[in-house]
Amino acid sequence: MKIAFHGAARAVTGSKHLITLNNETQILLDCGLFQGMGDITEGLNESFGFDPAKVTYMILSHAHIDHCGLLPKLVSEGFNGPIYCTPATRDLARILLLDSAKIQMQDAEYANRKIKRVEDQEMPLYTDKDVNKTLSLFKTVSYDQDFEIDPNITLRFTDAGHIVGSAAVHLKITEDGKVTHITFSGDVGRYGDLLLKSPQTFPQADYIIMESTYGDSLHVDLEPIENMLLQIIKNTCEIKKGKVIIPAFSVGRTQELLYALNGLELKNQLPDVRYYVDSPLSFEATQVLKDHPEVYNNGVKEVFKVDHDIFDFRGLKFIESVEESKALNSDDRPCVIISSSGMAEGGRVRHHIRNSITDRKNTILMVGYATANSLAGRLIAGQKRVWLFGQEYDVQAEVRSIKSMSAHGDYEDLLQFLSVQDPSKVKQLFLVHGEYEVQQKFAQRIINNGFKNVNIPEYHQEFQL
Domain Metallo-beta-lactamase, which positions (predicted)? Predict the structure, then answer.
């Protein structure tokens, strides 16, 4: 048996890990889109590094695009096997993949407007037809169920607490009379998350593929999230009469913000201003979370006893049309605008930032992970001039950050996730989904906790198990 790492190798995107058995059965763990890798991004997404038609089974840990975003391309290039995931992941992947296809098709159409020769035109990575074919291959497996994929492979999902439907993947593989247990963490969430259950414990593994996004960080804020939001909104909207612009991922982060704001209303503390969610995708993602209450933690279940809709409160409006979105920029009244994307690299939020960034009365609030090269990352770093839509702008607005709002666990969460394992029984541990410097630091923490063979795979590197 061997495993090759074709994405999220010394990087935080493009998750793809391929297990090949001695009988040539191939199991692909995740099939993510590369994002934010600069000039090399397009090339990375063009080639898998393996033959999709030879993949036997596909297992999806969760629905984030950097984990599922190349599934339609995998299918269009020959994969025709089952795609196993949790029910909530299937529901979320449907809306995210259709949205991704729409973007791919629009980008190709825009690029081809000035290209007359058909043979020179760009093609989208995939289309909505590819997505629909992909969705027909999805097969759902609930948490904590031992599911026999074939006589030699058993799959079990445990809740990873990262986003709705997210799972750690546990495989029991029998080869030549020998049983091997492999765990893939997917992305690990927080212990004590606002909305979701904490990551579940899991059985002893022989090999572990472990994410390491925040392997050198602690998410420490001195105040609860509700208090920080209240202080920022009161100072910006009530005192300075400005706008709070919040770049937020449509899945997970937006719902956490709505839950926290709803909590302020339940305490009669919510400032009396207008609240907008300017992201059609966020509306659909919020509905998926409402449809899967099994993922909520006990604290949320207690809130349900007094509030039937934990994501709704006075003053909230979901913006759908482009015309409504544009109208927000010409409305000078104090308000809070939550809009994607979370790193401010695309989407409607860039227009809201451009409209607000040169005015001291406004605040731009970061609430999640941002790569250093992204607009959100540059603002967090204190950059005083930024480029938006081909023009340079002075950063006059106040820039704030709530570091504890992350769907990824910090190094204490990751170590707690691993603490249920006997390190002496883990033959190899592979670190994926992290920047290399971060992974090196986290590898040392893991070794200090008793794990012996810790590897940080390179892109396309293969290991014999």
Answer: 13-249
Tell me the domains of the chain and their CATH numbers.
2-217+407-464 (3.60.15.10), 225-401 (3.40.50.10890)
Structure tokens, 264: 């302020």
Rounded distance between C-alpha atoms, residue 335 and residue 344, angstroms? 19
Instruction: Write the DSSP assignment of 402-458 as a string of letters.
Output: -TT--SS-BHHHHHHHHTTS-GGG--EEEEESS-HHHHHHHHHHHHHTT---EE-PP
Contacts for 71 with CB less than 8 Å, ≥ 6 apart = 31, 58, 60, 83, 93, 97, 134
With bands split at pLDDT 50, 70 and 90, how would you rate the model's confidence at 21? very high
**What's the full length of the chain, in residues?**
465
Residue pair 328/335 in contact by the 8 Å Cβ criterion = yes
* Residue given tokens 């058993």 in the structure block: 154
* Rg (alpha carbons) of the chain, rounded to whole number: 22
What SS3 state is found at 180?
Answer: strand
- Residue-wise pLDDT tens digits, 323-380: 999 999 999 999 999 999 888 888 899 999 999 999 999 999 999 778 788 899 999 9
Q: What is the pTM of this model?
A: 0.93
Contact 423, 191 (CB under 8 A): no
Which tokens sit at 345?
Answer: 């690299």
What average pLDDT does the segment 290-313 reach? 95
Q: Which of 30, 50, 51, 34 is nearest to 42 (CA)?
A: 34
Bridge-partner residues for 458, per DSSP?
Answer: none
Contacts of 107 (CB under 8 A, 6+ apart): 122, 124
What is the full DSSP assignment across 190-201?
Answer: -TT-SSBPPPPP
Inter-residue contact 248 to 367 (CB < 8 Å) = yes
Q: How far is CA 195 from CA 22, 143, 163, 267, in A?
A: 42, 18, 9, 18
pLDDT at residue number 49: 96
Exposed e or buried b per residue across 186-222, where buried means at least 16 C-beta atoms within 10 angstroms of its C-beta: bbbbbeebbbbbbbbebeebebbbbbbbbbbbebeee
Torsion of CA 296, 298, 302, 308, to 10 degrees: 10
Dist CA 266 CA 118 (whole Å): 58
Query: Cα 189 to chain center, whole Å?
Result: 10
